[in-house]
Structure prediction request, 97 residues.
Amino acid sequence: MRFQGFDGTDFENMGYIFTGADGQAVANGDAPSFMAFGTTPNNSGTPSERLRITSGGLVGIGNSNPQNTLHLGDNSASSAGVLRIDSFVANQFFFFF
Prediction:
């Protein structure tokens, strides 16, 4: 499923939801699949995969090959970190190791 937006001249790709075979061919009632979600970054017309759910139920955000129940990845060179949880109470922070 593809999502597009009209910029006043033509339609531009904005995102997608895609399903495909996960690792093996579909045969004899066995159809392992993945689902991927993509969005288009700023200054681009090409969507990129952002989130994937595998046939085993593993979820990858920023990672197309998750190895855990929730696998967060960061392909940027930013040192801002992969996970940020803010508190609405002043001076409360959450750390994950």
User: Anything to note?
Assistant: The longest strand covers residues 11-21.
